[in-house]
Amino acid sequence: MRILLVEDEARIASFVTRGLSAEGHTIEHAATVAEGSALASAHTYDLIILDLVLPDGHGREVLCAIREADTDVPVIVVSALGEIDDKVELLDLGADDYLVKPFEFAELAARVRAASRHGNRTSHLLEAGDLTLDTRTRVARRGDLTADLPSREYALLEYLLRHEGQVLTRQQILDAVWGFGFESASNVVDVYIGYLRRKLDTPGRPSVVETVRGAGYRVRA
User: Fold this and answer.
1) How far apart are CA 96 and CA 81, in angstroms?
2) Burial 64-81, CB ≥16 within 10 A → b, else e
């Protein structure tokens, strides 16, 4: 894939470029909002990896320019800003995924592969079996059930769907949805899984979120 990396930290840019190049991708690098916007408008990319805090502005400016140009290129936001409001705002603006720094390269590579598989998508829907989540409206649908999800429930279901089939530990979910440093002993994950189940489960059918005893949770088709 041809990938545009918008990242001002030279160490991170080098680390990501080396890793993705080794996996066969072509990487072009921009370090500012101006450079990133200019490259995104002048060339066609299969994926854009976008940092938020840049020397001449905020990465959302690049994202907005991309979406205003009506391009549907997948955008993965990479940022140290891990608060739920930051994630929801960027997803609402048109980002396809959100990865919090610091991150392992293996996770970034997996997100890139997922973006590649869905690069030709025609809608902003995440799907697993009969469950769908519209990332623009935050509406979840399962069969005849429809749920307009508040921010935290939306972020939780979105994270589970983007990792369809993967067993996610409570700590992984806490870090991704509530942010690093959240009290790991809290039962907040279980509580919010319960909210989703009450809205989207029906008698006689498997739960929308599967409990993997002793491991965590997952969504699968």
Assistant:
1) 16
2) ebbeeeeeebbbbbbbeb
CATH architecture type of domain 125-218: Orthogonal Bundle (1.10)
Rounded to whole angstroms, the Cα distance separating 74 from 191 reads 32
Neighbours of 202 (CB within 10 A): 12
3-class secondary structure per residue, the chain: CEEEEECCCHHHHHHHHHHHHHCCCEEEEECCHHHHHHHHHHCCCCEEEEECEECCEEHHHHHHHHHHCCCCCCEEEEECCCCHHHHHHHHHHCCCEEEECCCCHHHHHHHHHHHHHCCCCCCCEEEECCEEEECCCCEEEECCEEEECCHHHHHHHHHHHHCCCCCECHHHHHHHHHCCCCCCCCCHHHHHHHHHHHHHCCCCCCCCCEEECCCEEECCC
Q: Which of 135, 127, 6 is nearest to 77 (CA)?
A: 6
Domain regions of the chain by residue span: 2-117, 125-218
Pairing type for strands 26-30 and 2-6 reads: parallel
Q: What is the CATH number of domain 2-117?
A: 3.40.50.2300
Q: What is the pLDDT of residues 90-143, one digit of tens each?
A: 888 888 888 888 888 888 888 888 877 665 444 577 888 889 998 778 899 998
For the entire predicted model, the pTM comes to 0.55
Find tokens 């921009």 and name the residue: 30
User: Which one, of 158, 157, 139, lies nearest residue 149 by Cα?
Assistant: 139
